[in-house]
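Lecture 7 notes: from sequence to structure.
We start with the chain below.
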Amino acid sequence: MRAPLGDFDVVRPAPEALDLLVAPVADAVRGWSGAVPADELIHVDTDPQWADTATFVEHYGPELLAQSANCVVVAGKRAGETTLAACVVLSATRVDVNGVVRRQLGARKASFASMDTAVGETGMEYGGITPIGLPGSWPILVDAAVADLPYVLIGSGSRRGKLIVPGKAFAGLPNAVVIEGLGA
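Predicted structure tokens for the same chain:
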């Protein structure tokens, strides 16, 4: 099988790579019910030392930067309550935490969640967090530019491996909201 983008040696539909996925991601793939068939979620095996975006595109090709997205965990606070959410933006952009995210969550203050919180609450490795398999109650804020891409390279839940997902699949995730200008 050949990946729809990039040049990777080991490429499999995600349902055939469940053994390589962390439990929450494997469970989400196993129970996938999105409009995009689960077989269109592709797992590519990659070396964990190249997991971070800058080193990844340096190693696997700079053309992947325009087709890569990051998933970051944010915490919105209001009246002593904290709401965790995920933001999915193109890798070449930054999440507008203090503007778009804060307003979308109805929070007085929003910030990036600590690494311990992000890892502990998602069951995923830092540097590999993906919106697929997040807690079902979390809002998933997706930049429209991500949803508009034919395919997007994103974390797989661990630092080893990435997922290649049709952009439109992100809009169908539980509690997903597609937002213009989330990434700036």
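Points to note: The CA atoms of residues 22 and 32 lie 15 Å apart. The beta strands are 11-13, 42-44, 69-78, 81-90, 109-112, 140-143, 152-155, 162-165, 176-179.
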